[in-house]
Fold this protein.
Amino acid sequence: MNKIITGMLLILSLPTAAQDFQGRIYDAYLRGRMDLWKETMEQMERKAAIEKDPVLLYELTEVQYGYIGYCLSMKQKKEAERVLEEAEAQAKVLLEKGIEVPRVYSLIGAFYGYRINLQPIRAPHFGKKSEEANSEALKRGPREPQAWMEKGNIEFYKPAIFGGSKTDAVPHYEKAVRLFEESPGRTDRNWVYLNCLAGLGIAYEETDQPEKAGKVYKKLLDLEPDFKWVRDELYPDYLRKQSRD
């Protein structure tokens, strides 16, 4: 009997799998440990394949979104394309099930953006598709912060010759941050929120608003003093630029 009670208490004391996965992803993001991110992502893939849980499938797709972006930044295009194909297929399933529809359309818009990186010759086609998916996200969720963040990304990274504008990206990032902070639970150990704040800081720097950029970086370090990307790269680089100026 004691063994049964002990086992039941152990089960009750454990976090849910989704909570555990998200906590590990968040910690990997803070520490800049993409090896741990990938390891957790692969565990999520195996669990999602067995359980067919649509909530877990959405969380996995979001984690893959972050991993693909990292792979592209590291010029690991084959790995990026492999995971992107999986994520795109999962996004279709999520739409069919009606799970987190505005967020899913936001991710689809980002996936088309990744396609531009992989197939630059088709940039006009994928760029249009990205904007269409983002418009659908905003139509279905006008207060969805991730939709506004991705709208900011589209404007920020689209070449000026095709109508992109870093200046126009700033208010979209600002609105995304505001909506994250107005939405209950959306800032609690959420790597996407931190990423959005970092994107806003970078956009401020790129549009000659250094004072605002500095405030964003300080805010990030107040929230998470051990956020490696900001602590070791973004903020020190910002301070060096300011000392030269």
